[in-house]
Amino acid sequence: MVTEELLNFSVASMVEDVLQQNGKRLNDIDLASRKAQEASLRRNEAAGWLRKTIGVVGGKDLPAQPSEEEFRLGLRSGIILCNVLNKVQPGAVQKVVEMPCDSVTIPDDAALSAYQYFENVRNFLVAVEEMGLPTFEASDLEQGGKAPRVVNCVLALKSYSDWKQGGGNGLWKFGNVKATPFGKQFVLKNSELFMNSVSRTSSMGEKSLDRSLSEQISYGDLGLENGNMGNSSSFYMLVRGLLLDKKQEDIPIIVENMLSKVMVEFEQRLAAQIDQIKGSLKDMASLGTNECLTKQSSIEIEIGAPPEILNEECSNNKDTNEGKTNNQIVRQLMLLEKQQSEIKVLKSTIQATKADLNFLQMKHNEEVRNLGTHLQSLAHAASGYKKVLEENRKLYNQVQDLKGNIRVYCRVRPLRRQANGLSTVDHIDEGNITIITPLKYGKEGRKSFTFNKVFGPSASQGEVFSDTQPLIRSVLDGYNVCIFAYGQTGSGKTHTMIGPNDLTEETMGVNYRALSDLFMISEQRKDIISYDVSVQMIEIYNEQVRDLLVTDEIRNCSHKGLIVPDANIVPVKATSDVINLMNLGQKNRAVGSTAMNDRSSRSHSCLTVHVQGKDVASGTTLHGCMHLVDLAGSERVNKSEAVGERLKEAQHINKSLSALGDVISSLAHKNSHVPYRNSKLTQLLQDSLGGQAKTLMFVHMSPEHDAIGETISTLKFAERVSSVELGAAQANKESADVKELKEQIAILKAALARKEGEPMHLQCSGSSSPERSRLRSSAGSSPSCYSSRGASFSGDHKQRIDDLDSLEIRNNSASKQKRQSLDLQDLLMNSPPWTPVGSPGLKDEEKEAVSGDWVDKVMVNKQDSGRSDNTLGSWEEESRQLPDTFYQKLNTRNQIVTDDSDELEATTGDSSEQDFLWKPNVHKVSNSSNGSNLKKPSPKQAKSPDISRSSIPPPPSRRPSNGSISLLPKTGKQAVSSDAKRKSGSSK
Ligand SMILES: Nc1ncnc2c1ncn2[C@@H]1O[C@H](COP(=O)(O)OP(=O)(O)OP(=O)(O)O)[C@@H](O)[C@H]1O
C-alpha cells in the first residue's frame, strides 16, 4: 500500500487536477474527423467480434470491416445478434427465427416479413436490456437509423462476454451488472456511455494504456477505498459538469482525452515518486547491511509490494542508468541477505568443525602423550640396553686386561677422492668391521673382523682418543703402556698419532692428547702425588736408531749399533714443552714422498714418556712409562714405485714389519722362543709385546679397492695381535721401606768398596768397554739394564747379550726398580761373608756414589775383585756364607714388598741353552706372617736347576768376565756426556 508519504498523491485528486486544468480546452477540440474514425474503428471491432463469435458461416452476411450500411444490413434480420447473444448468454433468446433465404440477397428496400423483423430484434433487445447492457431502437437497423448505437450495444455485449470468459468474478467493472442471466440489473444510466467508452478504448488494442488505466483505476479504487473520497463527490460533479453540455457522441473522445492526460500526469508523478524511492535505497545502501535490509523490508511493507514489483517499476526506467543502479542495489541487498544467511550457516558449520577439531586435538594430544610415555620407556630401555652393551664392553676389556691381551682398535681412513666413492667397507658396528672382498677372498664376498673397537672414516681425533684415555691414567698409576699405530702406507697412522700437517686443537693426534691428559691428571693429583715427566724421542731408520730430540743434526745413538740410553731424555713440565719437543722430533723424522703418500714416514718413530711419581704422604714411589709408536707403513714396492734410497727404506720397513709379524705369531702360539732380535723394531717393542705393559695397537686401513690385498692382510694380522695374551700388567711401585733398604745396601756396597781400598774411577777407566761389559755381565744375571723390557723376557741368554750389542733401550722406572732389586742380589752374590751390615763411617764421595752410578761402581768393583768368574756353585757357596744377621736384617725390615720387578723367576726354556724368564708374582717378599721371607739359600736350592723358585738371582757365572758399566737414565746433558764417555772408552 502506498502511503501519502511515499506516493504523495491520490489518483482521484490527480484526475481532478487534470480535469480542471484541461476541461475547458476539451471544448476546443475538433472532434469531426476523430468522430468518423472512431465510429469506423468501433464498427469494425463489433463486426469482427460478431463474426468470430458466430463463426464465418453464421456471420457470412456481415463483412469483417463493414461500412455503416453494410453493418446495418448484416444485422437487420436480428439472426446474428440473437445467435451471438445466445452464445454469450445461452438461452437469452429462446427462439431465433431463421430467414428462409440469405438476407444479403434480399434487397435493402425489400420488405422483410414483419414476423422476422420484429421477433428476432425484439427478443434481442429485450434480452440485452434485461442484462443491463446498452440497447438501441429497432429502427436503428433501418435505413437512416443510428448505427453507432447498435455498435455500442454489440461492443457492450462483447465486453460482457470477455468479462464472463475471464471468470466473471466480482463486479463487471464496466457496468456493475450482475452476471445473473435474467435478473433485473441496475444500470447507472449516466455512466453508461463512459463505461462503454472505456470498454471501447480497451478493445481498441491500446494495451499499455489499458493496463495503465486498469492500474490507475485499481489504485484509484484503492484511493477511494482509502477514504480519499473526500473529494469524490466533487470529482463526480466535475466529470458531470464537463460532460453535461457535450453531445453524447463526443463524450467518449473527451473522456479518452482526459484519461490520456491523467495517464501522462500519473506517469510523471509516479516517476518522481520512484526517483524518491531510489534516493532512499541509495541511502540504505550506504548504511549497514542490516539497517539496509530493515529499511528495505519496511519500504516493502509500506509499498505493499514485493521487491519484484519495485524492480518492475524500476525496470520501467530501464533506459536510465539510475534504474539499472537501483536494480543492482536491490539485487545486491538480496544477495547480501542470502549471503548473510549463508554466513550464519557457515558460522554454525565452523562452530561444529571447531568442536570436532578440539575433540581431535584433544585426542591427538592424548595420543602424543601416550606416544611420549611409550617413547620414554623405549628410550629408557634403549639406554639400558646401551648401558648393558657398554658394561659388556667394559667387562670384556677388563677380561682382556686381566688376560693381558693387546687391545686392538681399528681405524678406517676416509676415502680418497680418486676412489669415486667406492669403499671396501661394507659396514661397521662397534667392534666389528665387514669388508667387501673380491671373490677369491671369501665365498660371500664379505669378510668380518672383530676388534676392541672400530672407528669409521668419520670418527674424529677426539673420539679415537677417548677410548685411549684410561691407558694414560694407567701410566700415572705406575703401569707401562705402549700405543702403536700399524697399517699400510698412507692408511693414516701418522694422522692418528700426530695429526695432519695443519695442526689444530681438534686435529691433534693421540701423542699430543696423551701428554696433555698426562699433565692434566698429574696437576689434579699434585696434592697426593708429585710427578716428574720426561720425554725421549727416537726413530728407527734403515735399522738404525736415531735420536730425534737434537737441535743440531740427527745422530746415531751409538758408535756401534744403537744405544738408546744415549738418546736425549728431556724433562717436561707442561704440554707446551712436549709440543715443542714433538715438533722438533717431527722435523727431524725421516719423511719422504712416495707414490702412495706425499708425506710418507720412512722410519718407525717412538715417543717415550717417563713418569716418576712420589706419594707425598707415604713416600711410595711409582714409575710409569709410555711408548707412543708411529710405525712406518708397509708398502708394495712396485706400487709405491720406490727406487734407490726409497727402495732401500721400503725394504728395511717391510723387513722390520715382517719381523714384528713373526714376533706376534710366536707370542700368539705361545712359543718359548720369540724372535725379538730380528729387527730393531721388535727389540724396541719387546717390552710392550713381551712384558707386562698395557699395549694398544691402532690398526689402520685404507678403504680403497686397490688396497684390498693389503687391507685383508693388515686386518688378519691385527686379529692375530688381539689374540696375544701378555699377562696382566702390574704397577711399578715400591714402598719407602724398600727404598730405605736399598739405601742400606748402597751403604754396604760403599763400605765394601772402601774396604777393597781401590778407587773406583780408576777401575772404571781401565775398562776397555765398560758399558758393554756391564751389559754383558748383567745380562745373564739381571734384566736391570733392559729398561722397559724389565720384568719379563724370553729368549736365550746368548740372544740377550747379542741384543745388547746393538740396542739398549732406555730403562723405564720399572726396570730401575728391578735393577735396584738385582743390585741387592749382586750384593748378596758378591759381598764377602764378613762384610758388616750397615758399615759406619761413609765418606762424602761414598755417599755421592750411592746417589749416582753406584751400580756401575759396585759391579766394577766386584768384577775387579776377581769374582766375575763365579760359578753357580761358588755363588751359592758365597751366599751361604753370608751371615745370618744379614738375612735377619732384611727380614726384620719386613718391608720388602715388591712389585713384579722384585719377583723373578729363572727358568729353563725349551731351548737347549738355559733361558731366563722373568715372570711376575712368582716370588713375593712380603711382611705377611706366613709370607716367604728372604732366606739364605739352602744347599738344595743352590744345586737345583730350579733356581727360578728362589728369590736369589741367577749365577754370576752367567755374567761376562769383563767389567761393565750400566747407565742410568740421564737427562739431556748427562746423555751427551755419557755418549762422550762411551766414545772415549771405545777409542781406547
Ligand atoms: N682419519 C683421517 N681423516 C682425514 N685424513 C686422513 C685420515 N687418516 C689419514 N688421512 C690423510 O691421509 C694421508 C695419509 O695419512 P698418513 O700420512 O697419516 O698415513 P701413514 O699411514 O702415516 O702413511 P705412511 O706409512 O706412508 O707414513 C694424509 O694426507 C692424512 O692427512
UniProtKB/TrEMBL annotation:
Start and end residues of each Kinesin motor domain: 405-724
GO molecular function, a single term: ATP binding
Biased composition (Polar residues): 888-898, 924-935
Binding site for ATP: G487, Q488, T489, G490, S491, G492, K493, T494
Residues forming coiled coils: 731-758
Ranges for domain Calponin-homology (CH): 40-162
Record's compositionally biased regions (Low complexity): 765-792
Region (Disordered) residue spans: 758-799, 811-988
PROSITE patterns, per the entry: CH, KINESIN_MOTOR_2
Basic and acidic residues bias spans: 842-856
UniProt keyword Hydrolase, yes or no: no
Record key words, sorted: ATP-binding, Coiled coil, Motor protein, Nucleotide-binding
Top-level lineage group: Eukaryota
Family statement: Belongs to the TRAFAC class myosin-kinesin ATPase superfamily. Kinesin family. KIN-14 subfamily.
Protein name as catalogued: Uncharacterized protein
Organism: Cinchona calisaya
